[in-house]
Amino acid sequence: MKYAYHAYGLCIESATPLQTLSRYHPQLGDLPNISLVEGPIETQSTSATTEVPVVFKASTGKLYAEVLGAGRYEVTARNIRIERAAKCDEPLLNTFLYGVILATSTYFNNRLPLHASTIEYNGSAIAFCGDSGSGKSTTAAIFANAGHKMITDDVLALAQAAEGDFRCFPGPPFSKLTDVSMKITQQEKENVEYSIGKYHIHSKNWISESFHSPSSIFIIEIDQEIDGFTITPLSGIEKVQAILRYLYRNYWIDSFGLADEINRQVMALSPQVSVFRLQMPKEKVIAPNLLMNQIT
Questions:
Q1: What is the CATH number assigned to the segment(s) 113-293?
Q2: Mapping DSSP to helix (H, G, I), strand (E, B) and coil, where does residue 27 land?
Q3: pLDDT tens-place values along the chain, 296 residues long
Q4: Is the pTM of this model over 0.85?
């Protein structure tokens, strides 16, 4: 018996049940299938060590990863293969599986992954892009606390339909928050999974499983010289460059052999979304209505 789940617009099949992902159902439509399997993986020339605990190798149509204490992963368009370490740290294994490993598989399935946390707002998707630690997840969690459901945390997968319009797909149904973010969003820590410096919040009240059209992308930039926040609309080449910069792990695109296709998708996406630079101090709490009133 195989179990079927969905994330990032993919149907993920597994021989064993997965507690973290949402179950696939026919109403989601025909999605690309990817199988999660376990078995031996060929060791690469460079292995993970205590000095370098995580190793990645990107090549045409494939990603290899080794995580010390978790195991090895091999990602292609149709398979995610896992070889567990002898003494496997399960939370660590799953953190990478449901994070970088699953997110990277979108590249091989005609998806455009943005390094963004995304929420619903008035029936559309609003994405918050930024570097690690810029406050993407915190900002999205603040919106979720205000009643705007979260579509995805950290990575947003978009795909272009046959008629040319893009749509956003839900990611794994949880949010990863730092200790500071937990305090800002007033989350309880008791009995919450913790891995690699972040708490994993599973809340059905927060999570959306619907597909949405993208509306706006906010590029979060931390500026400690300002007291409030400033919003600047981007256009033309600056807008395109901002989208390209915040593609997830964009330094692997050339190695995957996908540069031309990704550039085509970004050029097609750019006219369909508004892009803004959002400058604010670190750990600033943004009132959702105040932010959105600035652009509507």
A1: 3.40.50
A2: helix
A3: 689 999 999 999 999 888 889 899 887 888 889 999 999 998 887 788 888 899 999 999 999 999 999 999 999 999 999 999 999 999 899 999 999 999 999 999 999 999 999 999 888 999 999 888 888 888 888 888 888 889 999 999 999 998 899 999 999 988 888 888 888 877 888 778 888 888 888 766 677 878 899 999 999 988 777 777 889 999 999 999 999 999 999 999 999 999 999 999 999 999 999 999 998 877 666 666 777 676 55
A4: yes
CB burial string 271-286: b at 16+ within 10 A, e below: eebebbebbbeeebeb
Sign of CA dihedral 135, 69, 14, 257: positive
Nearest to 242 by CA among 155, 131, 125, 100: 131
* CA atoms of 213 and 190, how far apart (whole Å): 36
- Helix 259-269 to helix 236-245 angle, to the nearest 10 degrees? 130
Report whether 220 contacts 286 (CB < 8 A). Answer: no
Domain residues of the chain, as ranges? 3-109, 113-293
CA distance 62 to 107: 10
